[in-house]
Amino acid sequence: MASVILGILLILVPLPLFAEAQTSGNLTLGISLTANDRNSSWLLQSGEFAFGFRRMGRGAHLLAIWFEKIEDRTIVWSANDGNLAPEGSTVQLTADNGLVLADAKGRELWSSSLTGTGVAYAAMLNTGNFILASTNHVNLWDTFSQPTDTILPTQQLGQGSIVNARYSEMNYSAGRFHLTLQTDGNLVLYATPTPLNPSDAYWATGTTTTPGIGFRLIFNQSGQVYLTNKTGTILSIVTPDTVPTSEFYQRAILEYDGVFRQYVHPKMANSSSRWAMGWSMVSSPVPPNICTSIRQDIGSGACGFNSYCTLGDDQRPRCQCPPGYTLLDSTNEMNGCRQDFVSQSCDGSRPENDQFALREMLNTNWPLSDYEHSAAQTEDWCREACLADCFCAVAIFSNGVCWKKKIPLSNGWMDPGEVGKALVKVRIHNTTSKCTANGQKKNKNTTLMIIGSVLLSSSVFVNLLLLLITYLIYRSFRSRDSKLSRPVQINQATGTQTFTYQELQQATVGFKEELGRGAFGTVYKGVLGSKETNFVAVKVLETRTGESEKEFEREVSAIAQTNHKNLVQLLGFCNEGQHRLLVYEFMSNGSLADFLFGASRPSWYKRVEIACGVAQGLSYLHDDCTRHIIHCDIKPQNILLDGSLSAKISDFGLAKLLMVNQTRTTTGIRGTRGYLALEWFRNMPISSKVDVYSFGILLVELICCRKNYEPEAEIEAQIVLVDWVYDCYHEGTVHEIVESDEEASSDIKRVRRFVMTALWCIQEDPALRPTMKKITQMLEGAVEVSVPPGSFISSI
Question: Could you tell me which residues are beta bridge partners of residue 108?
Answer without folding.
Answer: 102
